[in-house]
Amino acid sequence: MQAWKDYQAQHKDRFLNELLDLLRIPSVSARSEHKPDMIRCAEAVKARLTEAGATKVEIYPTEGHPVVYAEQITDASLPTVLVYGHYDVQPPDPLELWHSGPFEPVIKDGKIFARGACDDKGQFYMHVKAFETMVRTNSLPVNIKFLIEGEEEIGSQHLGNFVQAHKDLLKADVVLISDTAMLSLENPSLDIGVRGLSYIEVEVTGPNRDLHSGVYGGAVANPITILAKMIASLHDENNHITIPGFYNDVLEVPAAERAELGKAPYNEAEYKTDLGVEALWGEKGYTTNERTGIRPTLEVNGIWGGYTGEGAKTVLPSKAFAKISCRLVPNQQHEKMTELVINHLQKIAPAYVTVKATPHHGGDPYLTPINTVEFQAASKAIATTFGKAPIPVRGGGSIPITALFESALGCKTVFLGFGLDSDNLHSPNEKFDVANFYKGIETIPYFHQYYAELKQ
Amino acid sequence: MQAWKDYQAQHKDRFLNELLDLLRIPSVSARSEHKPDMIRCAEAVKARLTEAGATKVEIYPTEGHPVVYAEQITDASLPTVLVYGHYDVQPPDPLELWHSGPFEPVIKDGKIFARGACDDKGQFYMHVKAFETMVRTNSLPVNIKFLIEGEEEIGSQHLGNFVQAHKDLLKADVVLISDTAMLSLENPSLDIGVRGLSYIEVEVTGPNRDLHSGVYGGAVANPITILAKMIASLHDENNHITIPGFYNDVLEVPAAERAELGKAPYNEAEYKTDLGVEALWGEKGYTTNERTGIRPTLEVNGIWGGYTGEGAKTVLPSKAFAKISCRLVPNQQHEKMTELVINHLQKIAPAYVTVKATPHHGGDPYLTPINTVEFQAASKAIATTFGKAPIPVRGGGSIPITALFESALGCKTVFLGFGLDSDNLHSPNEKFDVANFYKGIETIPYFHQYYAELKQ
């Protein structure tokens, strides 16, 4: 549509500057000291949605961080699209590895560097600007609703209750999310699903106090050593996960689909060079794309215990800790898997120590098959603005709330992601390419148009 | 000697208050921000030695923290005792586990609670007060020298050079150290030696940046998992250390000596209750006392990597770290052992990661056999004030400088320790029993007297 193109060309710089302002708010949901920033960020999102043309915009408090809701209902006979995104971000640590402040966005070599640039402020904001484009050019082909939450990075703890309590408000025909990546602008791809997540924290306690490692070392189990042995035992020599029953519910992907997924461009030498590793690691019998897409994994996200400061301290600590998460694939259920992992850790704990394992958060895996109207509308939109149809892929990340949308609202979710794997999500120097930001704003209106057409 | 007893009874409270003042100085040698406190502490030690009656007292700067030297040379024909101690302390972390401030000493149930109460301010200060007792009662039976350093807790990094450069100044017939423990006031014991130490830090690097554990998890080696596997592999199922050659230089202790050491009172049930553990851990084929006395050990003193803050972060970190130390027994040499451990860690590192291992500090093990004049003088002193001869034991801790004293000064070291294993050395709530402090001050003059007699 020429009108869209013209409007976007005219407001290009403003779109970008508004995003930079949003990125300046340190909305770290995991840290209680950022509670005021979370509220400030929710208010900013509300203001931007109002300016963009939403007729009803509201902040809903939850027991955690607030949810921002907005809508523009044009015609009850049109299909309704619910855009979901999140304004919260991951903690920025380790701070010393950032080249510029995580909350002082800079544009360098065509990339926006800031925490949340891609995940997910930059991506949900494309929807706000695509919406503005359609409203201001009087060409909104659907009814649209926005649900922008503040707890995605901590497992959408209170969104489930919110969705259950507001089923009518949120009623929609499809959920649209931009919180994933594509292969590249040259090789656009479209996720047919995301993995689920099970996240736990483990505390291993040995002696009841820190001990002198000379006086007691060798005679009392060191909880760090025991935790290391427990972690080491979780993968066998083929890097299969050893927890009994871990793979029981995994729906094997048919050979034909594996072959289709295998067509995604992948260059092992480039992949290794980008990561700076000599050798790749992973479950025997699967390719890299399969390991990150169709297989469940178990990763240690953090470990700590004993003396971790400058210099040396000869302590045999009382406790050691780890944060461990599993990515899940259909049909693994996160609650069942969390219980399985916790029970296993407690079972393998030797009598020398006590192990306390507690769940952090989780979410079920989710799929939107290629043959659905929802997937096809997205695929067509990408084909229109990129000049080539997207490659269907399986996303490795997790968006815990998608399974709930399906059960509570009865509609499928489309993962229309414009990030790149190299965007350093959850890492220092997170970035989002300016070109991807604009490409997203350009593509999104076509999704709405094609979806409205396909639904007629 | 009644004169000693009377003097000490008269000045009892002052002795204790002076120690409390010394404990208020946070002389943490491992932390650069405490450099001014280290200087302040050295000056306080100098002032106390001067007041106690030393005729020459001097602070010697080193490339690290300063050394305090003092002497009282009465008669060139008398033997000379060099008292060694240290005014630096271990870092107080984890602070939240202290019941009172680590540098705000309190006396509760007859115990002095403070970092350094036992290790080693409380113990070296017994010598200052014992010296004062002998000087003020005109009964010093030996020439006495003090060498109180500020880097024991970080491996006496610069004391070696200092000793080599001041051999004449430090010339002595015996070195006397109170920096170890005895079994109890009811069952006094005397260390015939201390273990050596080898301390290294390991850095495992996987990918060149922190990664999103969903996008990359399962396809790239996680350095925490690899470090855990490396640590797990260092002990076999019998808790023997698996590093090839680790035990090569261990001088097996003869059955007769093991039998003698086995006479030390030990109650496994009490030991477990005190530590709050259900089961003990250790090298198969050895008793608890042997595991902490005559056998070398390997302990992880600290581990960290990834996200360790509040909440959850789904990161696959770039790096993981550990601090690992070994306790050594005769005839293991710390430099050789450090190299052996570092080489082994590099050898077992898989191609997925790079491993950097660097030495922190170390020291050789040391023995002063029962049949030496030095041991006998100490044994007799304890027998006099405790009413029973001490049980000879092997100390589990390390005093890295002792081997150097023997090689540079040509004299043996006596470990006249008055601490208890339960003193929480290197842990929160370090304490020193007031009774042990006074018992040490009472006993030390007898060591000097008996040593002078035995040397005649």
TrEMBL record, chains A, B:
InterPro entries given in the database record: Cyt/Met_Dipeptidase, Peptidase_M20, Peptidase_M20_dimer
Domain Peptidase M20 dimerisation: 200-352
Any Pfam family the entry gives: Peptidase_M20
GO MF terms, alphabetically ordered: metal ion binding; peptidase activity
UniProt keyword terms in alphabetical order: Hydrolase, Metal-binding, Protease
GO annotation terms (biological process): proteolysis
NCBIfam families, sorted: PRK07907.1 (NF005914), PRK08201.1 (NF006053), PRK09104.1 (NF006579)
Name used for this protein in its record: Dipeptidase
Organism this protein belongs to: Deminuibacter soli
Taxonomic classification: Bacteria, Pseudomonadati, Bacteroidota, Chitinophagia, Chitinophagales
